[in-house]
C-alpha cells in the first residue's frame, strides 16, 4: 500500500491535526485536468492535495479538498465503528494521554474510552477531521521492556 486518501472540507485544519499526531507534511499540490477527471470518474476536477508522511517514513496519508465538483457528505456523517467500508486509521504512539490531549486541542473527541487489552495494549478511538475515526495504540509490552532494558548509569569510582 502506498497511501490512504481522505477527503476533507478544511485542508489546513486536517493538516494541523495530523501534524499533531506526528505526521510530517511532505508536500502540497493543486490537481486538475482531463487526466484527473478520467482517474476519479468526475468532470471538472479541481482539488488541493496534501501528502502526509508517517514518522517511520513508510506510510502516507493523502488529504484532499475538492473545489470542483464540490465534496459530498457521507451518510451518516459520524458513522459508527461497525459501518461498512473504511472505518479507521490506526497509529502507534508512545504517550497515549499526551497525544489525546494534543488532538483534543484540534477538536478530536473520544468515540468510546481509553481501554487496556490484556497486558499488551492501551487503545482508543478518537473522531478526527470529517468524522474520521483515528485509533491510537500504545504497546504496553514494548514500553515496559524498553524501561527494563535501559542500561544502569555507570558510576565513576
Description:
This protein has 157 residues and is of the alpha+beta class. The protein has two domains: 1-72, 2,3-Dihydroxybiphenyl 1,2-Dioxygenase, domain 1 (Roll); 74-157, 2,3-Dihydroxybiphenyl 1,2-Dioxygenase, domain 1. The chain is 23% helix and 34% strand. Strands 5, 6, 7, 8 and 9 form a five-stranded mixed beta sheet that branches. The protein has a four-stranded mixed beta sheet with strand order 1-4-3-2, sandwiched between helices. The chain is globular and about 55 Å long. Mean pLDDT is 88; it is low at 147-157.
Question: How are the SSEs ordered, and which strands pair?
Answer:
Blueprint: E1 4-7, H1 11-20, E2 24-32, H2 34-40, E3 46-53, E4 60-68, E5 88-92, H3 96-104, E6 109-110, E7 115-117, E8 121-127, E9 133-139, H4 140-149
Parallel strand pairs: 1-4, 5-9
Antiparallel strand pairs: 2-3, 3-4, 6-8, 7-8, 8-9
Provide a short characterization of the protein structure:
The chain is of the alpha+beta class.
Strand content: 25-35%
DSSP, total strands: 9
Total domains: 2
Shape: globular
What is the fold-level CATH name, i.e. the topology of the largest domain?
A: 2,3-Dihydroxybiphenyl 1,2-Dioxygenase, domain 1
Give me some keywords for this one.
2,3-Dihydroxybiphenyl 1,2-Dioxygenase, domain 1; 23% helix; alpha+beta; 2 domains; single chain; 157 residues
